[in-house]
Write a structure and sequence with these properties.
The chain is about 20% helix and about 20% strand. The protein contains 4 helices and 7 strands; from the N terminus they run H-E-E-E-H-E-E-H-E-E-H. The longest helix has 21 residues. The structure holds iron/sulfur cluster (2 copies).
């Protein structure tokens, strides 16, 4: 539905609106320059980093206890993954339990929906709150990379 808003008398003179916009930009500029500290809205990344919520869904990892992954290669996570970016090849262990011989996530396809984490019956696949994931090339997280335990790490410690 198209909603037509009435234009005020002053809004019809674009110069006034432009001046108002410039005034706000200018005021914020000087506030940031002169009021460094609590008043500043911007952060000096990477020296300063924002603490994201614990619920933030960032870089994946596979939860492991004593170096052994919780994953039993049940294939639930690749089944529910809407982006089809999880690839698992299962193997049978010495005690007949299955484990993922290969576990890969094509992170460029991932939409960080968290459905893999929700579906996992073993609490094995997790999404940490690490958000620094920019890459210069296509990245596939392999099992070795995913086995790095990232859950307890603070963002400042990095990957
Ligand atoms: S977060 Fe979503 S898209 Fe990414 S691997 Fe998990 S299920 Fe797939
Ligand atoms: S759902 Fe969990 S246990 Fe099943 S394959 Fe995925 S990570 Fe492994």
């Amino acid at each position: 539905m198209l909603i037509r808003r009435k234009t005020g008398f002053l809004q019809r003179f674009y110069f006034f609106e432009i001046f108002k916009g410039m005034w706000i930009t200018n005021a914020m500029f000087w506030k940031n320059i002169l009021g460094r500290g609590e008043k500043t809205a911007t952060m000096e990344y990477p020296e300063e980093r924002r603490d994201y919520s614990e619920r933030y869904r960032g870089m994946h990892y596979i939860k492991a206890v004593n170096g052994v992954e919780n994953c039993t290669a049940c294939m639930l996570c690749p089944t529910v993954c809407p982006a089809e970016c999880i690839h698992i090849e299962a193997e049978e262990g010495p005690n007949k339990e299955k484990f993922p011989e290969k576990f890969e996530i094509d992170v460029l396809r991932c939409c960080f929906c968290g459905m893999c984490e929700e579906a996992c019956p073993k609490d094995a696949i997790k999404l940490s709150n690490i958000y620094e994931m920019s890459q210069t090339k296509r990245t596939v997280y392999d099992k070795e990379f995913l086995m790095v335990q990232r859950g307890d790490k603070k963002i400042k410690e990095g990957v």
